[in-house]
Specification:
6 strands, Rossmann fold, six-stranded parallel sheet, 2 domains
Amino acid sequence: MSIRPRRPKAVAFDVNETLFDIGMLRDTFRQFGLPETALPWWFAVVLRDGFALSASGNSAPFGMIAGSALDEIFSALGQSTPTGAVSKLLETFAKLPAHPDVRPAFELLQKAGIPAIALSNGNANVTKGLIEKAGLTHLVPQVLSVDEVAHWKPRPEPYQYAAQKAGHPASSIAMVAVHPWDTHGAKQAGMVAGWVNRGRRSFPAFFSAADVEAPTLDAVVQLLLELS
């Protein structure tokens, strides 16, 4: 028997791609002489290895995984990773712009008196820097990293940690993400889930369905606020 989703008392947000646009990295990959497909390829390798570590009960810093993924791409193309390429990639990653629908989403929550939480598979300090650069610090009271529990989402531990830090049971917290695997993980952990379907994609049938769906972040937040 499914439990009817309720209006959340706090909302956690995925960071990479959900709040901040990794498309800026395309220029960096072009500078490396890599093809257009390199960015999604690299990000998929990052997720693959982060998930594999979590599944086996291990962890590693995001920067290390990101650097190894870049090495893998160059190696697959028969090239050596240029000197300084990993540092350049991570420097650019720390300057990603926020999507235009992020501020309106956070402002809706602030007006409703519901705190926003950033919950990232990346480094907390990098996330805080991105939020500060975007002028959003006053709208995001908590910035959390999976480093604190040594497991990446979609393992249950990060979601449970977010609920603990919010001071509410998981069923009173919503998780918002562009990644179906992330909303699925949140549902499995007992959270309400909102899927931002910016690409108008189909949702994988083998994942637990999100409770609300919309093409923009602020629209997803509005739907969460309309829950009773």
